Amino acid sequence: MAATTPIAPARRKQVLRVLFISLLLDLISFTFILPLFPKLLEFYRNLEIEKSGTVLSRILYGLNAYKNSFSKPINDRYDIVLLGGAMGSLFSLCQAIASPVIGTLSDRYGRRTALLWSMMGNIASVALWCAATDFRTFLASRIVGGLSEGNVQLALAIATDISSDEERGKTMAMVGACFSIAFTFGPALGAALAQITTVAANPFATAAGVSLVLIVTETVYLYYALPETHPAQQPHTNSNAKPDQPVAADKRERTNSHTLLNLTHFSFILFFSGMEFSLPFMTYDLFAYGSKHSGRLLGYIGLIASLLQGVVVRRMHPLRVVQLGVLSCAAAFFLLAQLETERGLYAAATLLAVTSSTVVTGLNSLSSFEAGSAERGEKPGNHRSFGQFGRALGPLVFCTIYWWAGRGVAYAIGGAGMVGVAGLVFGGLKPPKGLQISAAKSKTAAGAVVASA
Questions:
Q1: Highest mean pLDDT among 193-207, 287-301, 438-452
Q2: What are the distances in angstroms from CA 415 to CA 51, 268, 336, 352?
Q3: Domain at 335, CATH number
Q4: What is the residue-averaged pLDDT of the chain?
Q5: Residue 402 forms part of a structural domain
Q6: Which among 249, 2, 255, 275 has a CA at the least distance from the CA of 107?
Q7: Rounded to whole angstroms, how far apart are CA atoms 383 and 438?
Q8: Is residue 241 part of a domain?
């Protein structure tokens, strides 16, 4: 692979600091709403239950028709869960549509410009949530948010711009660590803010307002602190070069095709997101878990994933990271299929924490190695789009199997599907040229994961 222009260490450190702070602000704001979904959707349902012809009434009618088609009755308690799943699928579908466009625009106009415009969409989305006194407005906020959310993929593009091949894995692990930290603390903060009512017509306006403050703060910070990192947008050092002359893209010798990487990402997220969405059903059925116990379980997964990101994953080769994660996920699926005790549940949760901290981070890193300097927005954007399509379909497909055939069959099928993903990873993916796997480091890192688990 042709080397790109090296970045000065001081400038790289500056950009990484800006990325870390801005991503934390963004993801903490994003995770505020996650624990609020059940109560939030219940509020809108109770508000509009007597009204006919509303958007919410039509959605609930369709979901109830879907729920009643199963031979195994689904408790009415899950109406809100199914509605939340539908909202999550809609958000992911919007991201799947927007991600390639945002990535391509960042290649053409620069990362900083694309990111600031994306932030404008995020501000509009959260502002709509603040004003959402009816479900239609809340739905609009989720659609706007899904279509404008480009922060993560642009952060990955920026991280690729400023990192050498050897530094790439550590930088991607830093982005993954932001996710783990935010998902550990953001939901708890959102739940606490939801207890403070400042607007009677929208009981969740306090959480939405704080989220808006974080997003606006992030936008102002990015405007003043983030430099442009796209090579084509950098000033030319050659005084004879014309200002509008494009910088030649580096020609990269591909190791893994984008088709294979995108298929692997889609397949993994398809099964993994379905399992994620089904966990509240399963833990309620087996252990009568409520939101408090579910929050504790998710917090445990987030904490373990954060530790792994900071201590282990950043030291591993990206391919080994993906291999470890898919094997852990397959084992978790088969364990969940036979689950009988809470101890077994937390053992599976530990395996899922390994998966959460590894697979997507590793695949993003591998995808970035195959993108030239002129396509570091487009190719990762396409890669993310495939994952979001998987996230849009996974809950629907997996929960359909869960309620038609039962927990054991559903998780066994999920495990078999993850074995198939492992086949793609071990049989198809290869280490990028110029970044060979160090056997000694790989064994050390694998040993650390086993010890932590």
A1: 193-207
A2: 43, 11, 9, 13
A3: 1.20.1250.20
A4: 83
A5: yes
A6: 249
A7: 26
A8: no
Quick check: is 247 in a domain?
no
Assigned token pair, 409:
């069959």
Residue 150 C-beta-side C-alpha neighbours within 13 Å: 32
Q: What is the pLDDT of residue 387?
A: 92
DSSP result, 368-436: HHT--TTSTTHHHHHHHHHHHHHHHHHHHHHHHHHHHH-HHHHHHHHHHHHHHHHHHHHHH--PPTT--
Pick the residue with more confidence: 340 or 247? 340
Residue 36 near residue 214 (C-beta atoms within 8 A): no
Q: Which amino acid, 33? A: I
pLDDT tens, residue by residue, 262-286: 999 999 999 999 888 888 778 877 8
Alpha-carbon distance 364 to 368, whole Å? Answer: 6
* Amino acid present at 212: L
Residue 453 has, within 13 A of its CA and on its CB side, a CA count of 22
CB 351 within 8 A of CB 332: yes
Domain for residue 448, yes or no?
yes
More confident residue, 323 or 201: 323
Please, how many CA atoms are within 13 Å of residue 69, restricted to the half-sphere of its CB? 9
Residue-level pLDDT at 244: 41
